[in-house]
Amino acid sequence: MKTNPHSIVIVLTGTIIPNVTISSQHNNSEKRRKEYLECIRFYTQFSKVYFLENSSYPLENDDEFQNISNLMVRKFSPSLFPERGKGFQEFEMLDIWLKNEVDRIENFIKVTGRYLYPDFPKIWSECQENIDKKMIINQYLFVEAGVGLFFITTDFYRENFFDLYQSSDDRKGISIDFCVYEKLKSVPKKYFRGFCNDTRCIGIEGGSGRQMRNSLTDTLNCLIRKVNYIFDKHYIWLSF
Question: Is CB count within 10 Å lower at the N or C end of the chain?
Fold first, then answer.
């Protein structure tokens, strides 16, 4: 049975006060707060947004967040294992949210909270038009999955990704991107596919603190994605 496209919600993950300073050069909490607000206001144009936040920031006392229409704020305690990396903490928070959420969530688009996708109107339409899929996510063959943005049904997440964060540890070079990619190797291809629209984003990279740029490499990867999509909707055969 197909999912109602109007049931798709957007989930933004956030950490206003970084829990790991050693791996992040973008630690100014006020700048991060403003970036989250900008993204929230952008994404609430499309659907109900759930903002998941897991730092010591007193989010419940911030009226700018509390007064945005179409926004549901979900506050979590900081992770007990921040040294294992941002991906570990993000998927740990997603697990806790789904285990405790009182609203009925059929499916969602997960966006790493401070990143804006200029092509999101097309991405949003693509997800609505392909809700027979259990997941839409970009895959880089033999490397990793693009977990900054993906569409997924909650049932598929529960079946395949609950507790997956436990395998992730940046200190050992095991990213959550790699863990998701490895898990999808065991999933029948009919259940998932890659995005056909441009998924380049803009924002400040947490690790480097630098502004993301649409470089020549990004442009080439975008063209490769479009050509590859004609033949194989799951993998990018070549990327830089």
Answer: N
Tens-digit pLDDT profile for residues 57-116: 999 999 999 999 999 999 999 999 999 999 999 999 999 999 999 999 999 999 998 889
Domain that holds residue 124: 5-231
- Claim: this prediction has a pTM higher than 0.90: no
Can you give the chain as a three-state secondary structure string? Answer: CCCCHHHEEEEEEECCCCCCCCCCCCCCHHHHHHHHHHHHHHHCCCCCEEEEECCCCCHHHCHHHHCCCCEEEEECCCCCCHHHCHHHHHHHHHHHHHHHCCCCCCEEEEEECCCECCCHHHHHHHHHHCCCCCEECCEECCCEECCCEEEEEHHHHHHHCCCHHHHCEHHHCECHHHHHHHHHCCCCHHHEECCCCCCCCECECCCCCCECCCCHHHHHHHHHHHHHHHHCCCCECCCC
Residue 240 in any domain: the answer is: no
Query: 85 in a domain, yes or no?
Result: yes
For the chain, percent of residues with pLDDT exceeding 90:
63
